[in-house]
Amino acid sequence: MNQVKKIAVIPGDGIGPEIVAEAVKVLRQIEKMFGYTFDFQYVIAGGSAIDQVGNPLPEETLSTCLAADAVLLGAVGGPKWDQNPPELRPEKALLALRKELGLYANLRPVSLIEGLEKRSTLRPDVVEGVDLIVVRELTGGIYFGEKQRNQSEQGEFASDLLIYYDYEIERIVRLSFEMAMKRRKFLTSVDKANVLESSRLWRSVVERVAKDYPEVTVEHMLVDNCAMQIVRQPAHFDVVVTENMFGDILSDEAAVITGSIGLLPSASLGEGQMALYEPIHGSAPDIAGKGIANPSATILSTAMMMRYSFGDEKAAQAIEEAVKAVIGRGEVTVDLAPAGQQALSTAEFGDRVVEQLVQRK
Ligand code: IPM
Ligand code: MN
User: Among 32, 213, 293, 333, which is least packed, fewest CB within 10 Å?
Assistant: First the structure.
């Protein structure tokens, strides 16, 4: 019997609709192969929602997501809305969605796809064997602390409060230890404990939780050093856990290792089964509408959906293997194509992944 799953789909802005269309194409094939019925419910958020209804996260979008089994998101944002006040920025939709859905853990796996060793900005011998996952705290820290903008005797000032409660740290740290147990049992906790009080609390919580996981080797690394080590010896890392903003920055940095930010998927998990899946890249307004964006990150995000929301490791691996096979043959979009080589369009790449899945069957 087919399992029925409700998937809320938010194409969003810029290249969002183009890449999401390819991910849905792939999920349609997964339906046939693995016995699912996916009920895709399209909703708006971000800049397009601001344009249509004057609200980056309309009530209906939120309620549809809350009632869904999983959410698939393309990307939000663009220069058109850059001058808008904070409440009317497309990013507000994403932040509110994460917060409202309680998605505190953002998983960003980074591994090298065979055939792409030369596309990395780092030397092939440096990127060999890279297989790490950044676990980014997603609903706390400086992103969500109180914001102020005011006048004082010294002039105008602005502040963003970086605050963490120990329960917020503990749940993300625990999840990271669990993840490390299923991997190489090596956890790097990244902080700025030489300066920030919130980092000192972070470190003490890691030390406390570590006692429950004696098999896991733990190292603490300062964020500036980590930024360097990620490009110096990326293969050193297994699970990297860190707070919201450090994780935002480090995961973009880690993305170049694979050759293109267009390859990296993410999953945002909470306490329940409900989770959100999105590429780590943005809406790329400069190439939007041209049909040249790389849909891999979004397609690979659906693999994470199969794995984490539906507990279907086989379907997840099928998607991952299909993407790897197509890329491995050198059939790539323009971001990964060597100079002078004909590149695939976004839709052609999606078609190849589906064909690859069909052959496997
Ligand atoms: C990301 C993005 C978002 C973030 C932006 C769009 C708010 O950069 O998902 O990494 O900073 O979290
Ligand atoms: Mn980011």
Answer: 32
What CA–CA distance (Å, rounded) separates 357 from 361? 7
Positions marked active-site: 143, 192, 224, 248, 252
Ligand nearest to the CA of 279: 1
Which residue from 277, 359, 281 is spatially nearest to 325, judged by alpha carbons? 359
- The Å distance, Cα 214 to ligand 1 centre, comes to 34
Q: Which residues line ligand 1 (CB under 6 A)?
A: 77, 91, 94-95, 248, 280
Q: Which amino acid is at 120?
A: S
**Among residues 239, 203, 3, which one has the least CA distance to residue 251?**
239
Expressed in angstroms and rounded, the spacing between residue 172 Cα and the centre of ligand 2 is 18
Pairwise CA distance, residues 14 & 115, whole Å: 29
Q: At residue 317, what is the residue type?
A: Q
248 CA distance to ligand 1 middle (Å): 7
C-alpha–C-alpha distance, residues 104 and 96, integer Å: 12
Separation between Cα atoms, residue 71 and residue 65, nearest integer Å? 6
- Residues 186 and 179: their CA atoms lie apart, in Å, by 10
pLDDT tens profile 299-338: 999 999 999 999 999 999 999 999 999 999 999 999 999 9
Of the residues 71, 104, 106, 248, which should be mutated to test ligand 1's pocket, given the most ligand atoms within 8 Å of the CB? 248
Distance 76 CA to ligand 2 centre (A): 12
Q: Which amino acid is at 164?
A: Y
The residue to mutate among 76, 89, 95, 298, having the most atoms of ligand 1 within 8 angstroms of its beta carbon, is 95
> Quick one: which of 134, 96, 133, 80 has its CA closest to 10?
96
Amino acid at 204: S
**Sheet-wide strand order for 3-12:** 36-42, 3-12, 70-75, 275-279, 265-269, 105-111, 131-137, 239-242, 186-191, 217-222
Q: Domains of the chain by range and CATH?
A: 1-104+278-361 (3.40.718.10), 121-258 (3.40.718.10)
Q: Per residue in 336-361, pLDDT tens?
A: 999 899 999 999 999 999 999 999 86
Q: Whose CA is nearest to atom 12 of ligand 1?
A: 248
Please enumerate in sequence order all residues whose Cβ is within 8 A of that of 311, keeping only pairs 6 or more positions apart, or say none.
none
